[in-house]
């Protein structure tokens, strides 16, 4: 009995000492405010997540067809940023494609560069090219910068999305392969289209590309009620 009481008293005293003695593994909390981790720095040395250069004014340095070089006095717009030419006869938007160094960027014009000269001012919009989205765009024809070109009036919508976005996650995509029935027997039998895939039509003038697209839209819309988005390159 005496040995049991002695053991209990030793355990109590040891527990009291461990509670009263501060642990070295848990230092006291500091009252100073914590600092934010440094932002990610790109290979060219600029903080890309906090800098967009919106509102900066540049000047046209060189025009080679659709390729236009623009210089900025301070800061360079990030890649894929939209630049808009000021005091021009038409709305001319450029997209930044490359950094050339010495505060100069190389851009691609989204329209003809006729009349564009060196020294013209260019505005950095601070974002990529955005286009209207939503139900107001159904049945409409718009160009690459989101302007309607079908003579049906302006698009009345407040919803816009950038043309450069991350792809949907794999969990949001369908994994099974399905055939898109076009209603054209020759296409469905010889070269069936995959639902959710991409379809490219290549051919010379007068071979029936437009007729095939119009027939495809008509058949699928009447049979399934799906939405069609068609991108046309180099089409008058």
TrEMBL record:
Catalysed reaction(s) here are: ATP + H2O + 4 H(+)(in) = ADP + phosphate + 5 H(+)(out)
**Entry's InterPro entries?**
ATP_synt_F1_beta_sf, ATP_synth_F1_beta_su, ATPase_alpha/beta_chains, ATPase_F1/V1/A1_a/bsu_N, ATPase_F1/V1/A1_a/bsu_N_sf, ATPase_F1/V1/A1_a/bsu_nucl-bd, P-loop_NTPase
Question: Where does it sit, as one GO cellular component term?
Answer: proton-transporting ATP synthase complex
What Gene Ontology terms describe what this protein does at the molecular function level? ATP binding; ATP hydrolysis activity; proton-transporting ATP synthase activity, rotational mechanism
**What residues form the membrane-spanning segments?**
none
Q: Which domain of life is it from?
A: Eukaryota
* ATPase F1/V1/A1 complex alpha/beta subunit N-terminal domain span: 60-126
What UniProt keywords are attached to this protein's entry? ATP-binding, Hydrogen ion transport, Ion transport, Membrane, Mitochondrion, Mitochondrion inner membrane, Nucleotide-binding, Transit peptide, Translocase, Transport
- What EC numbers are recorded for this enzyme? 7.1.2.2
Occurrences of domain ATP synthase F1 beta subunit (ranges): 1-37
The UniProt annotation puts the region (Disordered) at 13-43
Cite a single GO BP annotation. proton motive force-driven mitochondrial ATP synthesis
Domain ATPase F1/V1/A1 complex alpha/beta subunit nucleotide-binding spans what residues? 183-233
Top-level enzyme category: translocase
Q: Where is the composition biased (Low complexity)?
A: 20-34
Question: Record's CDD domains?
Answer: ATP-synt_F1_beta_N
Question: What Pfam families does the record point to?
Answer: ATP-synt_ab (PF00006), ATP-synt_ab_N (PF02874), Synthase_beta (PF11421)
As for what it does, the entry says: Mitochondrial membrane ATP synthase (F(1)F(0) ATP synthase or Complex V) produces ATP from ADP in the presence of a proton gradient across the membrane which is generated by electron transport complexes of the respiratory chain. F-type ATPases consist of two structural domains, F(1) - containing the extramembraneous catalytic core, and F(0) - containing the membrane proton channel, linked together by a central stalk and a peripheral stalk. During catalysis, ATP synthesis in the catalytic domain of F(1) is coupled via a rotary mechanism of the central stalk subunits to proton translocation.
Q: Which family does it belong to?
A: Belongs to the ATPase alpha/beta chains family.
Protein known as: H(+)-transporting two-sector ATPase
Q: Which organism is it from?
A: Gossypium gossypioides (Mexican cotton)
